[in-house]
Amino acid sequence: MSNLRTYLFASISLVGVVLLFAFQSAKPGRIEPYKQERLELDPDVSKWSVEDVLIQLGDQKPQHYIEKLDADSVRMGEELVYYGRLKDHSNKRVSKYFVCTDCHNQVLETDDPSDESPARVLDFSKKNKIPFLPGSTFYGMYNKRHWYNGDYAKKYGDLVKNTRDTLYNAIQLCATQCSQGREMDFWEIRCVMHYYKNIQLKVSDLKFSSEEYAQFSNLVTAGSDKAIGMIKGKYNEINDAHFGNSEIPKIPGYEPNVENGEYIYKAGCMHCHAPGRNITNFDLDMDLLSFKFLYAKKDKYNQFSISHITRYGTYAVSGRKQYMPQYTYENMSNEQMLDLMKFIETKAAE
Amino acid sequence: MIKRLSITLFVLTTWYGFGQDKVTEAFAGTRVINNHSNETLPKNTLEFIIGHKFGDIAGATGGVDNFFGFDNIADVRFAFEYGIIDNLDIGIGRSKGVGARTQMLDGYAKYSILQQKTSGMPISLTFVSSFAFSYVKQSHDSTALASYPTFWNRMIFTNQLLVTRKFGNRFTWQVNFGYNHRNYVKYDQINGVYFVGTSGRLRFTKNIALLAEYNYTFNRLPTENHQDPLSFGIEITTGGHIFALHFSNAKSLNENLFIPETTSNWGKGQWRFGFTFNRRFKL
After folding, report:
1. In the CATH scheme, what architecture does the domain B2-282 have?
2. How many beta-carbon contacts under 8 Å exist across A and B?
3. B233-254 residue pLDDT tens
4. Distance, CA of A243 to CA of A332 (rounded, Å)
5. Closest-CA residue to A244 (of A302, A304, A323, A309)
6. Is the confidence at residue A10, as pLDDT, over 90?
7. Disulfide engineering: B162 pairs with which of A15, A307, B126, B127, CB 3.0-4.6 Å?
8. Chain-centroid distance, C-alpha B217
9. What is the ipTM of this complex?
10. Which pLDDT belongs to residue A35?
11. How far apart are CA B230 and CA B198, in angstroms?
12. Which domain-ending residue is among A232, A249, A268?
């Protein structure tokens, strides 16, 4: 009998001890505040990304902030950008009309990211053989803070409202409206953003004078937030957009540059319209027929007129959703338009 | 950095590679007028074609009484063509048909074997295999063509090779030769005929061109009432559609019929107006 009591007591004690340790102080999950820990960065500040600098100095993180880059996500994001789907075909194409690279470069388009003027971009593009495209480059897109600015509201109306401060929504608008495709899944956009992060601006991409850089480097090393203002002055957080009209520009005294016009034609127009590209239904070539046609139509108010199609583009319509985006004044200046038209005129006269 | 560089190089080589080597736009579409051209559809592209031919403009059944043929319909065809890969097309079509061969379904496969290049390859070589099938109700008259004793009697096949060369930017010339086989023919006809044809395109401007095509058939029986199909046309491209307006003695719009079955004579006013238009869609 006493043995039975002993066993009972031992068993109850054991269960009690187990129960005691089984209690937890669990609560619903909550977001822990971001710990401002110093990342392990190269002592050479020029090797840092712009974001690294800003985070180290305590700047506010963007909504699309990605703390840790995932190599597999970068790869998938890159495949989505270049091919519109994963190379293993495990997802559906985002758009049957376009892929991102039809309108957007993936490399730096200027030697000074604080100056993305059409003249500077064209000059840099010529030197580095980069396509001259209507869309903003994806290189450094991660470092922007506002998208679909300026006159894009005229084209897309209220659709741009939630894109102006949110990269996720901007990508989605581009997928569904600009490329006339499907809505992208969350994981797809996340992968594209990892890809963006992978091609974000580096300190070495920015244009500092040697004095400026020495000052900047010291400020960063000292952890001074004055460096934030300094680095933000070296690139643009916003790409503005102003739409033009179909009139042929008149710039008194301007002598068009045929060489620039040739580059715009080859690296801009023919990027999509070259035979065999199968991006459009209207092919252009370096032949007399193409130049004579374009020159003959230059004064028309229709899509065959160079100034008209370049400034207005075409709009996606039901049953014919493929369309052409326009070049804003921020992507092609009036001078460059005249350069292009002069090149066409010159070739048409040969 | 190496990855970035390789991506940049990929973009640049792709960009500069396009359009430099292959000779493109020999013809605007997959047909010259009604003959097949060497052009194939890009991968995942669907083309819709509507063709129409009217009655005789002149001769006994033409003239003002039939408003120069507009009161009569010689043939109507609509078709869908699809690019499986960049070098391989398939297509299906339905046409009214002509003469005793009516209610026609047709189909084809076209493969681009060689592509003309700016240097190295002077011609394009293309193989086209097509069939036509009449689903007209079987005639009880055993002497009629449409009596079709067996299912396979309804079939017609055409296999041909196209040799094409574009000279400069304006002129393209094509020679086609092949074999047409009608499984069931009238007593005064021969089942298999060999043919050789030629087609040309002369571009006046970027979007307007003159077209011509002709097919000559060999080994005909002397008793057969036959004419070689000869057509002329104007092509207008609009950057989305291709219109071909033409005049032809052939009534049919499909090669399985207009090569072996043409009987209309240009000299007797038995030629007609027709048109086709194409529209491409990306899928």
Report:
1. Beta Barrel (2.40)
2. 68
3. 999 998 778 999 999 999 999 9
4. 10
5. A309
6. no
7. B126
8. 16
9. 0.77
10. 47
11. 10
12. A232
